[in-house]
Amino acid sequence: MQIAMIGLGRMGMNMAKRLLLGGHEVVAFNRTSSKTDRLVKEGALGAYSLKDVVEKLSPPRIIWIMLPAGPVIDGHIIELQELLATGDIVIDGGNTFYKDDIRRAGRLAEKGITFMDAGVSGGLWGLKSGYCLMLGGDKETYRYLEPLFRTLAHEEGYLWCGAVGAGHFVKMVHNGIEYGMMQAYGEGFAVLEASSYSDSFNYAEIAHVWNQGSVVRSWLLELVENIFEKDATLSDIKGYVEDSGEGRWTVQQAVETGVSAPVIALSLMSRLSSQTKESFSDKLVATLRREFGGHSVVKADKK
Asked: Is residue 51 flagged as an active site residue?
């Protein structure tokens, strides 16, 4: 299939590469043209404006947006709305708030343009291993686009979740759970670090043995092992943990619907606390975010 990828950041670049490897034709656009040029060398067709993107696609045009949540997506959709035609399809694969999907879908529908939302998980590892895709929108459109989803996803790693907004809603809750899981690992290793046995502990080995059949085994724990193999004391970074928005949205949704979600709420509060003071657990959570998603960390001051 032919598709345009708008936004060639950490996720968009690798997703475009995976589509190319899967035999799809990719039209690439990024505000920084050097990234577009890099993907052209790997077989993509380069575009250097949104008008150029639309002109290089054959109807029905498929455009996948991989941009930061917020006004930047609105700006692109407003411009695309004037360039696209009835029957064209816009997919938002960023970490968008699901209520924004509903608003944007309504705007595009006025011109007969179909909108789908795609929650995407897999981070820096998705190019090799495949992504987990959570999709919302018209089911007939989902079926039409399924060859793209199949190429991008890990085996059995894509799902139609429901109407517009459902994909990003499921991804929002996914990230809320992720907050709680990482916080639990961080706190557990902090308890180990504070014990009288800590001098004999090798945290990489502990993470490894926990992954051999224990009930807390996971891919995140594999990353913990990798982290401690590189930096046994986490001395390289500060325990400053960003919150990406989706944890906040999950907590807000829980409050809005009267659902008790204390673990996710407290993990969010811990991230906010880390931005004014740090702990060993915060260092591990911050490093985990860098390991799976390439998120930036604050380097420790060297003495």
From this structure: no
